[in-house]
Amino acid sequence: MKLTKETLRKIDDVIPRYPDKRSAVLMVIHLIQDELGSISDETCEWIAEKLDLQPINVKELITFYPMLRETPWGKTHVRVCRTLPCALRGSYATCQKLEKKLGVKEGHVREDGEYSIEFMECLADCGEGPVVMVGEETFENIDEKKAEKLADQMLKGKLEKSAEFVSYEQGLLSDSPKKAKKSSSKAKK
Amino acid sequence: MTAKNSPKERRIILKHADDPNYSNRLGCYLREGGYEMLSKALKMKPEEIGAEVLKSGVRGRGGAGFPAGMKWKFLDRKSGKPIYLICNADESEPGTFKDRQIMYKDPHQLIEGMMIAAYAIQAKQAFIYIRAEFFEGARILERAIAEAKEKGFCGEKILGSDYSCDLVVHRGAGAYICGEETGLIESLEGKRPNPRIKPPFFPAVLGLYQCPTIVNNVETLCNVKHILEMGGDEFAKIGKPNNTGTRIWCVSGQVKKPGYYEFECGALTLGEMIFDVCGGLLPGRSLKAVIPGGSSAKILRADERFVGKHKDGTDFDWGIEDVPLDFDGPMAAGSMSGSGGIIVMDDTVDIVEAMANINAFYAHESCGQCTPCREGCLWMKKITTRMCDGDAREEDPEMLLSIANQIEGRTICAFGEAAAWPTQSFVTKFRDEFVKKAKHSKRSKNSLQLI
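ok -> structure tokens follow
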């Protein structure tokens, strides 16, 4: 297993934050998974040694937590919220549309490794459902129709600069003209 | 706002959240008087702050509604062990999205509230346990803490006083059970988040690393700052007795304008929230049911009457629209206000499908420690999903009730109740639809797919 110096530095930075080394395990897993995409048995052993644990103490977390992975997701991972508030706004249709457009079933990675979709439990943005996360960005009110456009933009590699799709995170940036747009629409409420 | 007479929001916690000229950076927070209360707190005795919080009557905003001041009082101070403060930012109850707004848009408010609380309980270290889906949220908090540390608002010798307390952001990994405070503690210790049994593991006595620990919700900790600003007595005048302060209600589902709205406790009814504040239902629809406090809360049927006696002996006789939005109102109606997540369902909803959706959630999220919950949740999911797949049987409603009743009260943590209450209330209140499913299993054309 090879990690960049940056990741190794971050790992060494995070461990002493806790009174007990073992507490750092989730954060260390996150840091490594961010770089490698998943946590192999070999990685479990490496983490265990780093934190004075047994490999099973790491493995049992990987197999428990929904967001920890033994195999990586696709290059672009799409999370669609499945839970009731989003479902009441049509998230099943959203997910099916994305599956069709991106050519991969939820819970799977496309053969070429480009895309994966996960029909996930509550993403805690229920007022703006259906909610879709592309990578680490949250897109709101993605009904079936919008899902089609969102997928088109992703496939063309244009989502990042899209004026139509402004993520929740982008909308918060103070220098973003999108923030003003977002705030005024809130004010109208 | 909307209609002329609709109740007005009173934003205390979210005062600046959606101001276009306000950002989540320290400069903005300081401009609005930020960290002045921390400075005031450090000049007080810790127990004086605790007394103000107790006087304020503020109840926990995470779900259980337990008075925060009382929780702090339970702290074991005699053991001499270090004390820890944990902010529960797991925000995992379906239907709830209020803490997200605070952390993404006004993180310094949370940090100030936490540092005041940490000083009040004399915590050695404080943690924010944030759900992993909030990628940017964790980064915003990390950056805000770094900003605060640089100015001496947290970390070593806060604002030149003798009090030091480090604040650490800890990310979860997508498990609902980490919202349960003892599960959260196990997770923070680096283990599987299997909740602990109470007694003896009350966090205030045997919490993180078996040390006295206070776990409070994001919104609760923000309130601490405002309690100090107003004083406990003044704060207690907001809202109603036993239901003090404001609450951020999260409305989702089939209304015209879902969203988060902050109101004084008891300032409006469920009907006013749905029909005035949220602009009513979608065109041509009528109300079928409301889940008033996150998916774990018992469902309220639109045509039910809620009749009973208040604690003070007065009678009440409510329709669903009359239920007051505070802590005690939904409780009196046989449900709970929980974490403030109001899920609205109109007449197009196939109630069995909605049940199947919720059951799939609990089956996915059960930690698996207690057999009744692990097996029961899966059974409830399988039965309701089968019912929606065209194979419903006449005996299913009874079977579902029987399973739910065998989960409730037989588990280590409250997840058992959280999973049983929806099934118990859905089946009891909508028995006709569950029975009908055996004859007409197909979803009607205008119903959305929910499972």
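Chain B touches chain A through 70 residues (CB under 8 Å).
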